[in-house]
Amino acid sequence: MAKVTIGGRSYEVEVRGDTVVVDGHEYPVAVKSDAGTTTVTAGGVPYRVQRPAERASGMAVQVDYRPFTFEYEGRLGGGPAPRERKVSESSGGAGATSLVKGGIAAQIAGRILSIKVKVGDTVAKGDVILLLEAMKMENEIKSPTDGIVKDIPVAEGQRVSEGQVLAVVVLD
Predict the structure, then answer these.
(1) Is 90 helix (H, G, I), strand (E, B) or coil?
(2) Torsion sign, CA atoms 72, 40, 139, 115
């Protein structure tokens, strides 16, 4: 078990082969490399990751082109690391998502202008879930998949931070 701090947020993390346990929640993980690009898929959500060649605590990494400082204390893995596979095409994400299964996270801090769906609604990939105002611009937050809205843990007018879960959409 290790204490991992990414971008100032701390988590208890353990790597168990193709599974990562984050604060007690298990997520399946796959790592794919293609022409210098690494895609880490955690809990079904792909993240484009760039890191220095040498692994060390305190290293700078980029996740989906955003810089983060990665620090850890302790041992990350108890078993083999997730298998790395070479692929011909890298899979890109359709927007920010979170480690919550089906979670759609804010890409930037802002304020919820309006919520376009309610819990229990069926949505299609690309449907607008809500409008987020950030930096004086309205951003449509869209569903990355077909599914059912299981949770909307935010309210209109609420301020949200980067990475905060805005909605949860799961396959029906």
Answers:
(1) coil
(2) negative
Token pair of 50 as six digits = 């760039």
Contact 166, 141 (CB under 8 A): yes
**By the 8 A CB rule, do 155 and 112 touch?**
yes
- As a whole number of angstroms, the distance between CA 94 and CA 154 comes to 21
* Tens-digit pLDDT profile for residues 79-99: 444 443 333 222 233 334 445
- The H or E element that residue 93 is part of is none
User: Per the confidence metrics, is the pTM higher than 0.85?
Assistant: no
Angstrom distance (rounded) from CA 131 to CA 93: 19
Q: Which amino acid is at 61?
A: V
89-139: per-residue pLDDT in tens? 222 333 344 456 788 888 888 899 999 999 999 999 999 999 999 888 899
Residue 141, burial from CB neighbour count under 10 angstroms (0-12, 13-18, 19+): buried
Are 166 and 106 in contact by the 8 Å Cβ rule? The answer is: yes
The contacts of residue 115 (CB under 8 Å, 6+ apart) are 129, 130, 152, 154, 155, 156
CB 98 within 8 A of CB 162: no
